[in-house]
């Protein structure tokens, strides 16, 4: 049985050097954090991202020890609900550390994101939308789990530890991307028409295929991963990843122990290399209740 864990996080956000406003938003609690990147003219993008993180932050789901008492508001089901459920069950059961009840936790996360999608649509009437990526640190059947979700191209990464071979070849620390972008270029990469390097400079690299609040495809991807004491995750908008290499981000995450300081260092690095978009980053450490993250 895993000892209880909570999140100790540091965050930073900036409108960047070329944008007039900041359409990013973030939320951090003891068990959940998320980054949203709004899209839309006349400040509608700011409304969309703010409504997204407000819905997540206010949801009782992320405040309950036993999520089974959370009332699920059923969103419109996936186009093939049977295939969706079978896929979730198959993926979770590939890892013997993931309990069966995690399937229902995935369903509950989808429900909260559907509520956010509806709130945004009601407020902006399809004139705007937002990406979102987030993590929920949750205990199920005595095991601590990261429940990671995303819609759009905001990302969640994890700093790889020694057990994952990080730095084993002398190449320095490594981060692993836990989410998969919902974007045109990612689709082209997945079918082999583009390389990852080509995707970085493709003219349609910012065109996303899923977002909350647009009235179009909103469904998130959700992953369930074992959580361990000392885990360090990073959540960010594309204003960070478009400016910094994975190697640079990994070095900062591995060398700056204070999560807030690490977030600030990453933000300033993105501004120095161009700051062409809004930049938001959260560095989240898994610690025991009452314990401070390193240097916090």
From TrEMBL:
GO terms for molecular function: protein serine/threonine phosphatase activity. SMART domains: PP2C_SIG, PP2Cc. Residues 8-286 form the PPM-type phosphatase domain. InterPro entries: PP2C, PPM-type-like_dom_sf, PPM-type_phosphatase-like_dom. This is Serine/threonine protein phosphatase. It comes from Kocuria rosea subsp. polaris.
